[in-house]
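I'll show a sample.
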Amino acid sequence: MARTRHKQQKDRHQEILDAAARVITDRGLAETRIQDIAERCGVSPGLILYYFESKDRLLVEALTYANDKYYLEQSRELRRIPSARRQLERLIELSVPGLLDRYERLEEWALWLEIWVRALRDPSLAREREVLDRRWRQSIADIIRHGRETGEFPDGPDADELGLELGALIDGLAVQVLLNDTVVTPERMKEVCMRVAARLVGFAVEPASSAGDTIS
């Protein structure tokens, strides 16, 4: 009985996080009320405040929840790809807002924008942001290390440093894509990221593959 109650609480917690992500994406954090999130998931505002201390806490947990889902899906897919170069290309594809219908990640990117802005003045959010960004850079560095271990990538600069550089490039271009920059389209972003990755890591860029390709 206790196990069933715990599962129900966990499911409700996730429902609130899903609803919060959608509402914050639609309205922005400043225009989002706890009442709006409560109405979206069909619970009382009091229940949301029971689970979360504040709207900022809800924002961080919603982003972390979205990130966890993304990394789980990403790791499952990348494990099925033997080539490190193709793993890196796929990671870039999955990171470009709107490039792939199946992995648009627009909700998560919108949450990231909110976190970045608020982290400027909130030390607690800044620490949360650092943890999440560190995992993002680590995922890039791990692919580079894997490619070097298998001989697909040549030895070169520190993998963690390259993860930082490529992560910053992807983040910066993604913001411009999200803002509908007429020059930085999703396709252009992928092209630039792959070109820079090839130069930094040391591999040849292969002919562009279709964004809609699936991994068999």
About this structure: The CA atoms of residues 169 and 212 lie 23 Å apart.
